[in-house]
Amino acid sequence: MTTYTICYSGTDCYLDQSLVMRKPEEMHSYNVSSGYIPSKIYHDLTRALGAQANCVTMNGCGAPYSQSHQNLPVRIWTIETVAEFPNDPDPQEHSVCNKAPAFRRAVDYLTNPLSMYSDSALGLSVEIIAVAGIASMLGVTLHLVPLGEFDHIKEYWDDSTAGGYTQDDLAYPVNNSMWNNTPQATAGHYCLRWNAADNDKITKFLSAFSRVALVGHSRGGVACLIASNYLAEWFASLDIKIIALDPVPGPGDWWPCLTQIPGMKNMEYVGIYAIDETSSGFNGVVPKVVGVDGSSSKVVWDPLSPTSDSKTISGWSNKNYTLLYTRGRHATVPGSRSSYGQGESDPINDNVGASGNLSNAYVINKLNAWGLNLTPITSDQIKQWITDMNRIPEHFEEMRTYNYTPTTRLGLINGWYYYNARGISSSSGSNPSSWNYLEAFIEYVTTDNINDVPNVYGGVTDPAAINNMRGLINSGVRGSYYKKYGGSGKVQPWQFLAEAFS
């Protein structure tokens, strides 16, 4: 079975993030071993196998997208009112084909504070990036037609506004009179079209590859979720594998395609989340799974809901759904050794970086299990990183008082109002009533269950000390939420990353 890999970078992260082509300060802020994981995985594969590496990598949204959007292998179709001459009293509707659009960057707020179109802030380009990754994998240009608008695109076709394309260039896939022909796929904002020549390329690709591994950090992790739905729609023969490193959609609309993934046969999800990230707007998405039941009716399983049951999904098991958490902040998980998760201006702390190195070791093991051939990390090195990480629980706790804002230590706002704990959700980043807290899903170590805990704590046997190493420090969350959620015994279990190697 041959696996193709797509690596998606996070917001304002480049496809060569932390590598030799980047600025020295950035390179220095990442681990030598892990680098920035999505970029490093792609680099290691291509360095070993060259053109035979079977992988592509994508820029993140924000500044990287703004600098590369016109080169993406996608075309976007819209209906626009076009005046044939100035002051035309009777402008006509036309089908218009455009390259991927530009979106504003966060820095644009400095010149236009009222701008509502910052790609860094809202991630408006994430869906386009997700589809562009699929197009790059297939070696084709994919045409994105707004959902339900294909008949209108044909009705108002005008060769003069079609960018040199003909209707034949939107001939495939056949029989797409409706979106979601595959019940497990959740519709995005577009349906995909391509031409006859590209249809041959795609057919050839599907004869050569049977599995796609999607790896991404932050909004790159969200791109993985979106891409999984587009893949499931028209390329259902592919086994879909997802590794999302602290997937964060941001403060915008968490629409269904980025909160749901397809519960198809052999689909696997691995999410690794940062327990010490308390920044406002950085809630992690824990995606629901869409499947069908025994009568082929659509069903949705929510891994954070005690009233939801994964057994209703036919042909798929929640054993293929892995939730892990580790110490550190949003940037720590993919390999930063920044002391407080603030980036290049921070001093380096290799004990903090040990957490990202463990993420990298786990990602390598999982990708190799899916058919790749990356050099695995030795067990002795993994044990050393676990020891290094477990030495500084108080430092990780202090990281919770920092926030991704121009003014540091605004994480305390979450401490006053949001328990100073990591927010997660399977449905909304803007509605507090839909938020949960990561600590509320994790079982405390006690004298009664300590024998069930893997021995990765250097011989420490005091339950309180082990819980502190794990990051279980917030009694408010425990008292208010644990019994309802994690203590119910009816939600998907979480595991501390250090224990996952045992």
UniProtKB/TrEMBL annotation:
Protein name in UniProt: Uncharacterized protein
Species of provenance: Arenicella xantha
